[in-house]
Design brief:
mainly alpha; globular
């Protein structure tokens, strides 16, 4: 356990010094491996990092990121916001509810919290501030709502976890549906409490005609997750193939149906997707290095033994694990924390 704490402290110190997380993990892993095995291990480390980032299921990650970027450029985010506004805008603090509702819908398409907040935050955060929302509250609502993409399928962190834990991506996707919905409505309850506290305004009265109109305009935005997730859950395509299907569907909708996507926007979407993918994959590669070292020194077994020495109660063990995940999540990217 002392070795694990030392490694975690080293990573934390580097992060506090503003060293990128992926680089911090890589430095700690390389130093630990060289200390244990000498400089002769360095060529093998390159192979470990490469193999860690090139697993076939991980191919779904850049594809879902690219699909989210293309869908944002296609005007899908604007249509989802309009629909969410017609559905939730009547409540006190309506724009906060719209942010959460739109994030839930967009999460079903992109699978990425980064894509979610990039697509919706640039529109909704200034909108909330203009309506009198305190700036910290507007940022908190949007950033919290974006994290629903971690739970609601097709979730990129779930794909990453499935690869690391060697479990079914589809089963994880199915397991995330109900908690994601509950989490969304839980955030809406908190938003309503803050809305009453700050006396935030409603957007407009509920009108079934407007709901129908915005739903019709956003029809293809709703059909995309049905096509993608339906294919995955139905066993027609794998998660990786479903991600490729999402990219093709996004291009078709953007170019031929909504006709808001052009070649320049597609090029920029590809560049944005490549940048986000590079960040995630570098984390995966360096985390694979650290994970290899931790496995070598039997760190997981030591952690399990330490937990069982504290308590045998399954609920207490679950609470301790959640506390650990909470602490890790404060400092590490989700990809690094999972690995």
């Amino acid at each position: 356990m002392s070795l694990m704490l030392l490694l975690f402290a080293a990573v934390l110190v580097l992060v506090v010094l503003n060293v990128p997380i992926a680089v911090s993990l890589g430095i700690v892993a390389v130093v630990a491996m060289v200390t244990s095995h000498g400089l002769g291990i360095l060529p093998n480390l390159a192979i470990v990092a490469y193999n860690g980032a090139t697993s076939f299921p991980l191919l779904a990650i850049p594809l879902f990121i690219l699909a989210g970027a293309i869908m944002n450029a296609s005007g899908i985010s604007r249509r989802l916001i309009a629909f969410a506004s017609s559905l939730f805008g009547w409540a006190r603090g309506g724009l906060a509810h719209v942010s959460i509702g739109a994030s839930m819908f967009f999460a079903e398409i992109s699978g990425s919290a980064v894509a979610d907040i990039a697509a919706l935050g640039s529109i909704l955060i200034p909108g909330m501030k203009a309506k009198g929302y305190p700036a910290p509250l507007a940022a908190a609502v949007m950033s919290s709502a974006a994290t629903l993409a971690v739970i609601i399928p097709p979730s990129i962190p779930m794909i990453l976890y499935a690869v690391m834990a060697e479990t079914s991506v589809v089963q994880l996707f199915v397991a995330g549906i109900v908690p994601g919905i509950i989490g969304g409505f839980g955030l809406m309850a908190m938003a309503y409490w803050f809305a009453r506290r700050y006396d935030l305004p409603r957007e407009e009265a509920f009108a079934l005609k407007r709901v129908a109109s915005t739903a019709r305009d956003a029809l293809w935005a709703f059909l995309l997750p049905i096509i993608i997730l339906g294919g995955i859950f139905g066993g027609v395509v794998t998660a990786t193939e479903g991600a490729a299907l999402a990219v093709v569907a996004a291009i078709v909708v953007g170019f031929l149906i909504y006709r808001e996507l052009d070649v320049a926007q597609l090029r920029q979407a590809v560049i944005d997707g490549a940048v986000q993918t590079a960040v995630v994959m570098l984390l995966v590669a360096t985390s694979a290095l650290l994970g290899t070292y931790l496995t070598e020194v039997q760190a997981p077994q030591q952690l399990a033994q330490a937990v069982t020495q504290l308590t045998q109660n399954k609920w207490a063990v679950l609470a301790l694990l959640n506390l650990l995940f909470l602490l890790l999540g404060m400092f590490l990217h989700s990809a690094a924390a999972i690995i």
